[in-house]
Structures are given as C-alpha cells and as structure tokens.
Amino acid sequence: MSDAADQIFAALKQSSQSGAPLYLQLRKSIEDAVNRGLIGPGDALPSERDIATKADISRVTVRKAVQDLVKGGILVQRHGSGTFVAPRMERVEQSLSRLTSFTEDMARRGMAVRSAWLDRGLYAPSPDEMMVLGLSSSELVARVARLRIANDTPLAIERASLSASVLPDPAGIGSSLYAALELTGNRPVRAVQRISAANLGEGDARLLEVPPGIAGLHIERISYLASGKVIEFTRSIYRGDAYDFVAELRLTGPSEEGRS
Question: Where's the HTH gntR-type domain (predicted)?
Fold first, then answer.
C-alpha cells in the first residue's frame, strides 16, 4: 500500500465525525491529508479498490467521496491515469486598463508560456463574425484557437476571429498573435472587453483540466485599430480559480464628489 494511502487512513482514524455518513468521513480524511501536506499536489491517490479494501467500505462510498472532492477542486481525475491531488494554483492578477497579449502578460511575471493549437484556418464567417468584423458572406474569416498554458498549467482557451484579408495565413502565426499583427501594422490599440461568469462545459473543462460545471470566466473582446476599424473578435474561457481581473477606478471630476 502506498505512503499516500497510509496518510489518508491515518487522517481517517483521527476524524471526529464518527456519526457522519462514511463517505463524508472519508472525504474529510482525504481533504485533511491534503490540507496538512501529508499528500501534496500531483500525488496519486490509491485506487478505489485499495481504499475500499483497507477502509472496509464499499467502492460506491469511495467513489462518492472522491467525486465530491473532484467537484470541489481538491482532486483531479485524468482518464486512464487515475486520481491525483490538484495542483495549487497561483492566482494571476491582470489589469483591465492595459491591452496586452497573454504571452506578454505571462512573460512579465516570469512564467514559461506555451500554446496547444486547437484550430488555425480559413472559414466562411458566422453571422456574429460578419456583424462584428464587418464581413460579407463571400469573404473568409481567419480563426485561431489555442489552449494557453503557463508553467505547465492550462489557464485559458482563446478563440480569435479576424478577417482573412488581415490574416491570410493563420498557420504561420508563432507564439503571439499580436506580435504577428504588429509585423503588418495591424496590432490593435484599444479594445472593449465584456466579462461574464460561466459554468464550464465538458469539452472546455477537459482542456483546462478542471471538473465540468465548475465556475469560469467568459470573456468577449472586440479590438480596434487607431483608425477605429475592428481588427479582432475574441471569445475566451478562463479558469475561475486562476484569474483575478483588476480595474482601477478614479473620480471623474469635482462634480462627482459626495456621490455614492
């Protein structure tokens, strides 16, 4: 039996919730072991069968306790690999007053950045893309979708749309879309960003390595050139447990003083 199992069952023996349902006792023992550092981020949990055998409880009880902890973000399950203690996330604080790329944001924090490409291609535009980017039905739209990863932790899914006249070869983009746009004089200078809460669907949750249904941030951004022309339409999903968006608020003038 692994050291992790011994630590869990030591915590289980110390549980004071003897009158609570078994799955709650087991859930608390695992959570206590994690919080006390007896098992750390990335450590594998014993199998359901091993836990059930040693604790003398049913596998259904074990499964219920584990699923509760997965939903709570304490554990993560990886298909074909098992159940692990979730990594401790270092929250990223991002200002809403600066228009920067993900690559620039993370590099400024000294974090190693990489992307997993989900899509790069030219397509017929959707009605939303036609409306926002000012495209006709006969024009093409360039779509660039990436899973953004910092320090080996997936943080965001970005899905950007641009006119094919601006980005005729999406496959040629390197690590930064904005760097590629800057080379052609098409880097945006301002943007309007709308942020809303969202429960992550199964596909996005799988990419971000979080449980389906967990809270996330849906961000829609429309970016503009200095001329006022829309250059980019991006819809992103960010992990809710990793990001804080911060805005500085200022009094606009003496006439506003005293108002609440």
Answer: 20-88
- 3 state SS of 31: helix
pLDDT in tens, 5-44: 666 666 565 554 556 788 888 888 888 888 777 787 778 8
Which residue, chain included where needed, has tokens 């108002």? 259
Q: How far apart are CA 140 and CA 123, in angstroms?
A: 5
Query: Do the beta carbons of residue 200 and residue 213 sit within 8 Å?
Result: yes
Cβ atoms of residues 16 and 24 within 8 Å: no
Domain extents in the chain: 3-85, 92-246
What six digits make up the tokens of 18? 């003897």
Token pair of 226 as six digits: 């200095």
Residue with tokens 């983009």: 173
Q: 148 burial class (0-12, 13-18, 19+ CB within 10 angstroms)?
A: buried
Could you please state the CATH topology (level 3) that the domain comprising 3-85 is classified under. Arc Repressor Mutant, subunit A (1.10.10)
Class of domain 92-246: alpha beta
Strands 92-95 and 243-246 turn out to be parallel
* pTM listed for this prediction: 0.63
